[in-house]
């Protein structure tokens, strides 16, 4: 169904561009048919390539990544972990479960009950690895959607350029159409490059950065809960967060390698 909807939207966009692109006036770098083509055609191609659920997940991932603050998230996570550990130490499982269920991080919500029910450290780490894999997979699908958009946008610009050149060469005697045809030919390429490099690629990098921080936090949560399960001092948990806060940033870190090493030392 999504494939048909995407192709239908693409056909309507191209039809509008073909009928209006060579007669519409333009001023400076604003040409409405070119904007419509570059705004709608890449989205239609992406709709044809991905299911609606994947596109919805990508939109939610972008929204979360834009609102995400690593410093605020780390502070909230540390507070939730220390409160949870304190309740576990004081043998108040109901309150500990409340804190875990109210946590913002999915891994803490899933692993907290396992600690309260006294699962082994190996079971906790195994569950964390599975949870982390699912979380990273969802974020990588969102990143892939934006990668597709960043590749399709320049290609769509070239399509508009070809359409404009065809119209330009079709009837050179009609001078009133030369301007709009040249605008369609040149501005489509410009719009495509701007969309790809100034919109879609930065959004993809924002999601990747969010994913890297989320993986790091998941490893911190897993190690901290293992320490709580093994009745280790809470100071060790604080040291983990201090080490993470002072660790140098690694923009080129490979997320899949991080994801498979959940059970290792941070």
From TrEMBL:
Entry's localization field: Cell membrane; Membrane
UniProt keyword rRNA processing, yes or no: no
GO cellular component: plasma membrane
GO biological process, one term: bacterial-type flagellum-dependent swarming motility
Spans through the membrane: 29-50, 149-169, 181-200
Membrane topology listed for this record: Multi-pass membrane protein
Keywords: Cell membrane, Membrane, Protein transport, Transmembrane, Transmembrane helix, Transport
MotA/TolQ/ExbB proton channel domain location: 114-216
InterPro entries noted in UniProt: MotA-like, MotA_ExbB_proton_chnl
The family this protein is said to belong to: Belongs to the exbB/tolQ family.
Protein's name according to its UniProt entry: MotA/TolQ/ExbB proton channel
Species this chain originates from: Melittangium boletus DSM 14713
């Amino acid at each position: 169904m999504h494939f048909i909807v995407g192709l239908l939207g693409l056909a309507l966009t191209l039809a509008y561009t073909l009928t209006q692109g060579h007669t519409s006036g333009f001023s400076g770098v604003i040409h409405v048919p070119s904007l419509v083509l570059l705004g709608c055609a890449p989205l239609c191609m992406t709709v044809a390539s991905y299911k609606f659920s994947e596109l919805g997940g990508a939109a939610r991932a972008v929204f979360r990544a834009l609102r995400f603050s690593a410093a605020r998230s780390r502070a909230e996570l540390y507070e939730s972990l220390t409160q949870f550990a304190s309740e576990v130490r004081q043998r108040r499982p109901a309150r500990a479960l409340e804190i875990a269920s109210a946590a913002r991080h999915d891994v803490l919500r899933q692993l907290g009950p396992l600690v309260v029910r006294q699962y082994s450290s190996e079971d906790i780490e195994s569950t964390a690895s599975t949870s982390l894999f699912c979380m990273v997979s969802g974020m990588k699908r969102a990143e892939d959607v934006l990668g597709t958009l960043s590749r399709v946008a320049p290609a769509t610009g070239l399509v508009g350029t070809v359409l404009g050149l065809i119209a330009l060469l079709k009837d050179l005697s009609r001078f009133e159409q030369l301007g709009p045809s040249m605008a369609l030919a040149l501005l489509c390429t410009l719009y495509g490059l701007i969309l790809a490099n100034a919109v879609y690629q930065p959004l993809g990098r924002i999601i990747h950065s969010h994913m890297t921080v989320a993986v790091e936090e998941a490893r911190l949560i897993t190690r901290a809960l293992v320490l709580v399960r093994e009745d280790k001092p809470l100071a060790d948990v604080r040291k983990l967060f201090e080490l993470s806060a002072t660790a140098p940033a690694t923009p080129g870190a490979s997320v899949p390698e991080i994801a498979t090493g959940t059970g290792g030392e941070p």
